[in-house]
Amino acid sequence: SQQGEEDPQALSIQEGENATMNCSYKTSINNLQWYRQNSGRGLVHLILIRSNEREKHSGRLRVTLDTSKKSSSLLITASRAADTASYFCATVGGSARQLTFGSGTQLTVLP
Amino acid sequence: GAGVSQSPRYKVAKRGQDVALRCDPISGHVSLFWYQQALGQGPEFLTYFQNEAQLDKSGLPSDRFFAERPEGSVSTLKIQRTQQEDSAVYLCASSSSLLDYEQYFGPGTRLTVT
Cα separation of B8 and B22, whole Å? Predict the structure, then answer.
């Protein structure tokens, strides 16, 4: 079963704008990760944030985590057409090693 | 270096046939995972290996699904007597150590059962 919901399900923006995606989850976690999936390709790891962290940056990516609300957000700044993809949050909890994925956000960046 | 590879990339099976899907993880990676991704959904966990030991198979949907990793490297996911609901993309992922939570995914095998 999916861990939770991602919001919005689909997002369309112009190149150069910022894109924000949100993720909610249900159970306690060790860490939360964001992955990108281009059409017809495998998933690519973007960033990991641990349960004791509140914010993390990597290049044009900014991730926040609010464990009290069981939610996370991914911000992509200065978006490019190449950022067009599906974005998934995924959690790791307890002693488990596997990822539990959300339902994903389809991002379209228009040139 | 080489990433995770999977074969075949596409597989069409008639209902009732058995299929075998192969995963070659990144060399030296300890952990190996299989996921099933239905169209428009996020991947769902099937099973997990640490070296050759299958430590978690709680996600396998039925006893028609079987996975092995006999030498702690290549893994095979076998589906017996395929059903239409088995149609999905099957993703394999590996990670380097027990301390590394980041997973590296292969391109997947798209299985279509007709």
Answer: 7
pLDDT digits (tens, 9 = 90+) for B4-47: 999 999 999 999 999 999 999 999 999 999 999 999 899 999 99
Contact A48, B104 (CB under 8 A): no
Give B-chain residues touching A42 at CB under 8 angstroms.
Answer: 4, 91, 105-108
Hunting for tokens 């994925």 — which residue is that?
A101
| Closest A-chain CA to B60 | A1
Q: What is the pLDDT of residue B105?
A: 96
Chain B hits for A92, CB-CB cut-off 8 Å, are 101
Min Cα–Cα distance to chain A from B47, Å: 8
Which single residue is written with the structure tokens 């059903």? B83
CA dist., res. A57 & res. A30, Å (int) = 18
Residues with Cβ within 8 Å of B91's Cβ and at least 6 positions away in sequence, in order, are A42, A43, B6, B34, B35, B36, B37, B43, B105, B106, B108
Any A CB within 8 A of B100 CB: no
For residue A98, the chain B residues in CB contact (below 8 A) are: 33, 45, 48, 56, 59
> Which tens digits make up the pLDDT trace of A23-79?
999 999 999 999 999 976 789 999 999 999 999 999 999 999 999 999 999 999 999
